[in-house]
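User: Run a structure prediction on this.
Assistant: Running it now.
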Amino acid sequence: MHAIVVGGGIGGLGAAVGLHRVGWTVTVLEQAPEFGDVGAGISLWPNALRCLDELGVDLGDRLATQEEGGFRDRRGRWVTRYDTAAFERIHGRPLGAIHRRDLIAALRDAVPAGSLRTGAEVTEVREDGRVRFTGGEVQADLVVAADGIRSRVRHALFPDHPEPVYAGSTAFRGVAKHPGARLGTSFGRGTEIGVLPLTGDDVYWWVAYVTEPGEDPVDLRKSFGDWHDPIPALIGETPPEAVLHHDLYHLGTPLGTYAKGRIALLGDAAHAMPPFLGQGGCQALEDAVVLAHAVSTEDTVEAALRSYDAQRRPRSQRVARESVRMGRLGPQLANPVAIGIRTALLKALPAQVTARVGRDITGWRPPRLPRPAPPRTP
């Protein structure tokens, strides 16, 4: 059985790893000239770490486990602290963080090199599995559309479906060296600034604030230079050309199905969500494992895709809705009275209670995939 995966990001490579693991031949078509350094950092919640375990992807010392931190206001006053022991006990795994480039590399290395094709722009995908791309045409048993929030495959399958909508905020991301930085999220009016330690004293930071789409970005050094340490230093130590800036969009109208014919939509192509729960990449990895399990347990591709859709669509769309809601209650909250109430409520919560937040999302466990046969002894 042969699968074509359109897109070589986290979801696409995760799907390729899973399908290869259950015995499929896989070809990954990536439009970019190489599988390279994409983005800045990413948080890996327990549900994603379990998926990587099931895929057989070992991140080793590239994964940074978060040990302490919490929520603060712009002056650095603690609102609530992060109880790491309670979090790991309740959620079953710690919160991890990694460079996106390292995660992409780990997933890429788990796929046979001959399965990866770069500079391959897909020009047509048909429901029967026929795929045309620059350099060739192939008939596949399964097509996995993991081509991102602006998915061409999704648009071809559902041309009347509404396009992604603006999430209300614009975001900046970067990585800087800063020994001793601690995990934290700090809130201001309509603003969130996050600090996520990586390995080797690297720190992933992000800034998101409410604005109109397409507005000229603010000067980060001027606008956030009076926030608490280490925020000004992190921004100042990141070369301007290395700072990523994107308006945030999401798939505001949920799809009615993630499968059509022999095509499965996966990751942002299926359920692009705002980043306010840190679950975008995590949900893509869940998709990858469930899809691999479905094709390894169902008798036909059609039955496998029905199973995949039935399992993934309700959960991923619920997480997407929760991401929107958390944005409105968190980084996008601008009313001073509402901010005061939120701060008072968070301060009143014991750390043990705070650690339970999100357990219904991060506690998800992937289905078991077939294990590779051990090598034969001569």
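DSSP finds 13 helices and 19 strands in the chain.
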